[in-house]
Design brief:
Layout lengths: L2 E5 L4 E5 L2 E3 L1 H10 L15 H7 L2 H12 L1 H213 L10 H114 L1 H20 L2 H7 L1 E4 L11 H8 L6 E3 L2 H8 L1
Antiparallel strand pairs: 1-2, 2-3, 4-5
Helix pairs in contact: 4-5, 5-6, 6-7
């Protein structure tokens, strides 16, 4: 027996008597020749021989049996007996199965004749059924042709009705869009009307306030004019009074001059009379006007008292007229000063009124400009709000259509993810970074032409609604 092993770059082959065999066949041949893998004594370790020599007899007997392969033979023998018993059991089962098969074959031989009889009558039955079915088929084809004719006729009518329905649907959509636009414009006009009414009320209030302010200013101006007029009237009256007093003074002045002259004459006459009296006293021998000296002295004293009283009255009158003149002059100065003050105040009020009017007109102009700008912005806001509401309504319709096309489960998942991301953004911190690392669904991250919509939909399918994240940790955080 020759055993050869050939090891190449790609193959490892065994040759037994120049025939290619497997490795398991080689192992079986070696075991049958007494070279078992379980025998550990093909290579003896150092010190093992000394151990065997000094070992007791039972152990050496055991080692001898192991080297001879007796133990392995016994084990294999026991295994062979187990296999033999299993084989005998299987053989018994096979014999029982063969008996059952023979019995079944005998039964089938009996059923074979019945089957032939059955096939004969079945053939006749199928022939009759074929005839019946063929007649029914011809009737069905005839009815089908009739129905196809009627269907073609009804198809034309249906097509016309479909076209009419499509036209009506388009018209309804157009009318609905026009109705929404009209309602939007009507609401805009109503809002503008309310704003204009509010603005009109504000203008009326402002106008009333300004009219009252102007009336107050006019009243103040008229009051200043009345004060000025009253002061001018008093000044005129004082001037007239001064003129009257001056006229009275001019009238009294000649009399005063006359009385003064008379006083001087009387004084001179008195001096002359005194001198004359002295002369008369000296001339005792002359005749006298009065019967006695006492009578003469009484007369002279009476004349002097009368003259002095007249002089005192004139002086009092002159002093009174002078005081009145001073008082009137002082009053005149005060009234002129008051007139000048009122004139200046009136000029200041006029200047202030002019400035206030100018400021008012400037502010009114600025207010009108800002009001117009506010109205424009308000109209733009209303227009944008209406467009926003229309877009929200359109988005809701599209979302409802998408929900009916792809199913509620996908869109519910999308809504849940959006809610989770909103909560993360509100919390901030590390949650915000998770929200930033979420990039949306696949359908939201690319775009293509309309002519490729059907191809993309058929190719990707529901994968268009898969979610895109930075890594698996972000997806895990969102799912948690």
């Amino acid at each position: 027996v020759t055993l050869r092993r050939q090891i190449g770059l790609k193959k490892d082959q065994y040759y037994l008597n120049k025939k290619i065999v497997t490795r398991s066949d080689v192992m079986n041949v070696l075991e049958s020749a007494g070279f078992s893998r379980s025998n550990p004594y093909y290579i003896v370790k150092q010190g093992k021989i000394n151990q065997m020599a000094t070992a007791p007899d039972p152990q050496r007997l055991k080692i001898l049996r192991e080297v001879a392969g007796t133990r392995i033979y016994d084990e294999r023998k026991e295994e062979s007996r187990v296999l033999l018993r299993d084989t005998e059991n299987k053989l018994e089962k096979i014999i029982d199965l063969l008996k059952y098969i023979e019995e079944r074959l005998q039964t089938l031989e009996g059923e074979k004749e019945e089957l032939k009889e059955y096939q004969k009558w079945d053939k006749m039955r199928r022939a009759l059924e074929y005839t019946i079915y063929n007649n029914e088929l011809e009737d069905s084809r005839k009815r089908q042709r009739e129905l196809e004719t009627r269907r073609e006729t009804s198809g034309m009518v249906t097509e016309k009705l479909r076209e009419a329905l499509q036209g009506s649907t388009d018209k309804i959509k157009e009318l609905s869009r026009d109705l929404r636009e009209v309602r939007t414009k009507l609401q805009t006009f109503r809002d503008e009307k309310e704003a204009l009414q509010h603005e009109h009320s504000s203008f009326l209030k402002e106008k009333t306030k300004l009219e009252l302010h102007i009336k107050d200013l006019k009243d103040e101006v008229e009051g200043d004019a009345s004060s000025k007029k009253r002061a001018e009237t008093e000044l005129t009256a004082l001037r007239e009074r001064i003129t009257e007093k001056q006229a009275e003074l001019n009238q009294i002045r000649p009399e005063y001059e006359e009385m003064k002259r008379m006083e001087e004459d009387c004084t001179r006459k008195l001096s002359l009379k005194e001198q004359k009296r002295s002369e008369l006293y000296a001339k005792q021998g002359r005749g006298s006007q009065f019967t006695s000296k006492h009578e003469r002295d009484n007369w002279i004293q009476t004349e002097l008292k009368s003259l002095r009283r007249n002089i005192a009255d004139k002086r009092v009158q002159i002093d009174r007229l002078g005081a009145d003149l001073k008082k009137d002059a002082k009053r005149k100065e005060e009234l002129e000063a008051k007139i000048d003050e009122l004139t200046k105040e009136l000029e200041n009020n006029r200047s202030s009124i002019d400035n206030q009017n100018k400021t008012f007109y400037d502010m009114k102009k600025k207010k009108d400009s800002l009001q117009n700008e506010r109205n424009d912005l308000w109209r733009q806001e209303n227009s944008m709000q209406q467009n926003h509401n229309m877009l929200i309504e359109e988005k809701a319709k599209k979302d409802q259509l998408l929900r009916s096309m792809v199913g509620k489960t996908i869109l519910n998942g999308r809504d849940s993810v959006r809610k989770v991301l909103q909560i993360f953004r509100e919390r901030g911190g590390s949650y915000d970074s998770v929200a930033k690392n979420y990039y949306g669904m696949l359908i939201e991250n690319f775009d293509c032409g309309k002519e490729f919509y059907t191809a993309v939909e058929m190719t990707a399918g529901n994968k268009l609604f898969h979610h895109i994240v930075e890594n698996d940790k972000v997806g895990t955080r969102i799912l948690q």
